[in-house]
């Protein structure tokens, strides 16, 4: 085996976004692109000599090839050991757990999350630190700096490793252990939720449909729901991971999981429906005729978490990203614990979780999680919901109606304008920013602006500061509009417009969300000039 030092030069466009580096697959496959980024990651974290890394991905096209490249580079950079999911598969939460369980020094997770996969679709890579969580900004900044000065990368000549056979192998002086991607994760879930109660629920005839969207949660859901918990065969649909996700878009929302939504709103709907995304960290929850927004799901889980063994002693606190609806705030206040507001990006929850300030966190982008790992966790959310359904013996619709009757309902929607010309999206945000001082007190249509600003965050643990984290306009009467540019898109810019309206009138808790949000939508479009500047008259996706 020959150790090689390959000359290279910096490649532009290697700045990590909200969650690692995401690009078109063809970009990642271009000469030196992946190698430059992997070496820069190793350099940015102070080298990997003597370290143990977890490596795995969501099984999308190029996953297997990229893993072999990473393993050769890790060996050539002197890593002591790589722990790899069988077949190169690890869901993002399972990878986070494995890093923590094995006290590894970090991990490389190959995924573009909910983005489609395939040679013409998307690929991604991110580094998670020893706490199992996505690298904080200080580390990703360091990695980016290394991408701009890189001169060479290290690799070696070696045959591809057999990723299918569980057990020990070696690559030069590095140990490689291939592990069952599901077993440790399933064992962790059993310590958190009441498997006995859920088993009894299924044994009593409770019905469910879990859509794995041809992505990584298939094997996890088959093993846990149909295997350990005894749900009938067929409960899990689209449960075999495929490199192009069955040519689908593995994003668990009403647009991309429409077949599941139709089933749940049709005759003979099961009691409970759920879906997860490409890498298994997102989730969608839907009851019979009752879609639950991610923000509401966070509030519901917060209100009832104590029913699960893992949270029996109560929660230390909760956290949500700024654009996530304020539904959980009321629950936290009434239960007497803190509610933190962070920028978008799971990495911002890491310090709060590590410091024991929060137990649960969540985001409007279909992510919920807890201190059991340092990533959001789709299947965990589904299992916690099942635990709550088993304990309360109520339907999803009943649980939501109770929650809204107690705390009011935060009607909520997110409008995504995708692949917008980047210059125009930047212009719109720039204009909006410059007009902010004029907004307070202004009347826009039926609404009056109470406060408008650009969100900045100072981490309460390490005092690091993050500016420019979204523009928010709060109106009198519980309405709010938030504008952000996505940090996960791979084509042009994606403008996200988040709309919210709190309703406490008990007679108005079952209205159509889009109708309730019409005033705040109109005000937001007027304030931002979004349609005139971008030329877009409608969002591509509403979730
Ligand atoms: C990632 C991050 C989330 C974030 C989401 C959307 O999720 O981990 O924290 O909310 O992207 O980010 P943006 O609005 O910038 O596109 P995932 O599931 O894509 O890894």
Automatic annotation (TrEMBL):
<dbReference type="Pfam" id="PF02879">
    <property type="entry name" value="PGM_PMM_II"/>
</dbReference>
<dbReference type="InterPro" id="IPR016055">
    <property type="entry name" value="A-D-PHexomutase_a/b/a-I/II/III"/>
</dbReference>
<dbReference type="InterPro" id="IPR005846">
    <property type="entry name" value="A-D-PHexomutase_a/b/a-III"/>
</dbReference>
<dbReference type="GO" id="GO:0000287">
    <property type="term" value="F:magnesium ion binding"/>
</dbReference>
<protein>
    <recommendedName>
        <fullName>phosphoglucomutase (alpha-D-glucose-1,6-bisphosphate-dependent)</fullName>
        <ecNumber>5.4.2.2</ecNumber>
    </recommendedName>
</protein>
<keyword id="KW-0460">Magnesium</keyword>
<keyword id="KW-0479">Metal-binding</keyword>
<dbReference type="GO" id="GO:0005829">
    <property type="term" value="C:cytosol"/>
</dbReference>
<dbReference type="GO" id="GO:0004614">
    <property type="term" value="F:phosphoglucomutase activity"/>
</dbReference>
<dbReference type="Pfam" id="PF02878">
    <property type="entry name" value="PGM_PMM_I"/>
</dbReference>
<feature type="domain" description="Alpha-D-phosphohexomutase alpha/beta/alpha">
    <location>
        <begin position="185"/>
        <end position="286"/>
    </location>
</feature>
<dbReference type="Pfam" id="PF24947">
    <property type="entry name" value="PGM1_C_vert_fung"/>
</dbReference>
<keyword id="KW-0597">Phosphoprotein</keyword>
<keyword id="KW-0413">Isomerase</keyword>
<dbReference type="InterPro" id="IPR005845">
    <property type="entry name" value="A-D-PHexomutase_a/b/a-II"/>
</dbReference>
<feature type="region of interest" description="Disordered">
    <location>
        <begin position="1"/>
        <end position="20"/>
    </location>
</feature>
<comment type="similarity">
    <text>Belongs to the phosphohexose mutase family.</text>
</comment>
<feature type="coiled-coil region">
    <location>
        <begin position="499"/>
        <end position="526"/>
    </location>
</feature>
<feature type="domain" description="Alpha-D-phosphohexomutase alpha/beta/alpha">
    <location>
        <begin position="14"/>
        <end position="153"/>
    </location>
</feature>
<dbReference type="InterPro" id="IPR005844">
    <property type="entry name" value="A-D-PHexomutase_a/b/a-I"/>
</dbReference>
<keyword id="KW-0175">Coiled coil</keyword>
<dbReference type="InterPro" id="IPR045244">
    <property type="entry name" value="PGM"/>
</dbReference>
<dbReference type="GO" id="GO:0005975">
    <property type="term" value="P:carbohydrate metabolic process"/>
</dbReference>
<dbReference type="InterPro" id="IPR016066">
    <property type="entry name" value="A-D-PHexomutase_CS"/>
</dbReference>
<dbReference type="InterPro" id="IPR005841">
    <property type="entry name" value="Alpha-D-phosphohexomutase_SF"/>
</dbReference>
<feature type="domain" description="Alpha-D-phosphohexomutase alpha/beta/alpha">
    <location>
        <begin position="295"/>
        <end position="407"/>
    </location>
</feature>
<dbReference type="InterPro" id="IPR036900">
    <property type="entry name" value="A-D-PHexomutase_C_sf"/>
</dbReference>
<feature type="compositionally biased region" description="Polar residues">
    <location>
        <begin position="1"/>
        <end position="17"/>
    </location>
</feature>
<dbReference type="Pfam" id="PF02880">
    <property type="entry name" value="PGM_PMM_III"/>
</dbReference>
